[in-house]
Peptide/nickel transport system permease protein (Nocardia pseudobrasiliensis), 326 residues
Amino acid sequence: MLAFLTRRILGGLVILLIISAATFMLFYIAPGNNVARLACGKVCSPELQAAVAHQLGVDKPWWQQYLEYLGGIFTGRSIGDNHCPAPCLGYSFHNHRPVLDTILDRLPVTLSLTIGAVVIFLVVGVGLGMLAALRKGSAADRSAMGFAVVGGAQQVFVLGPFLLFLFVYSSRIMKVPTYTSFFDNPLRWAGGLLLPWVCLAVISAAYYARLTRSSMVEVLSEDYIRTVRAKGMGSANVYVKHAFRGAMTPIATLLGLDIAVLIGGAIITETVFNLPGVGQLAANSVQDSDLPVMMAVVLLASAAVVVANIVVDIVYAFIDPRVRLG
């Protein structure tokens, strides 16, 4: 296990290094990306732009700029007259705050959105998929797969406004979604995020329902399931202890990637429901041409995907006895 984790972590660090280099070159060095002009603002004289370029260090060779950026993540660095402590991701061109502080302010919103949505779409999606597999060909199966087809065809930018119109602006059953810290008021936290959770859950649960059903149907036809049944084991134990465990591998893969994507920023969802999370921050940084924030969000999303893949590989060993981590 230790050797496996070491290899996967080192591999993940190499991947992040490559992504950071490619992103840095794309944002800071690509033709047309005048970093000094973007940082200087709309009204900026050539003299002031040159001073800003020197302050930011973008007048240096590209490789030196990248090494200083990379070193700042581990040891911190000086940007102009300011010292940016590690891990330093630079200063925002828009609000002139450290990028890391800006992301950390937004991250609780994104994590709250992720946690609630994942719980709902896992319970609903996997539950419907298991029901459909166990009642294959029945009305329950057709109803569950009907929901999967309709739900999977939805998009956040369509379903989100519809839910807002139906429950907030038309019937006034619910208030406009807002974020309240869980530690301040758990009920208000859940109530303020319920509509975004439902919006994400309806779409994602449809995929999990189809995936769970197909995986369960395939596993239930395996020889070892027939052997277990022949030994007289009860149906509940067969379905839960053996069949569902065998069907969890593709579910774990999809779940890991979904969580990573949501943590990296549910851009459309946070924009539709006006939630101040990492996704909305990413959208705003594109509009403001805020390169340090854009690069930091890309690195956050990449790190989330790398970590999710490592965790999924570890989970495989507990789900499937045939998988060994050497």
The beta strands are 77-79, 82-84. The chain has a mean pLDDT of 85. Residues 9-88 form one domain.
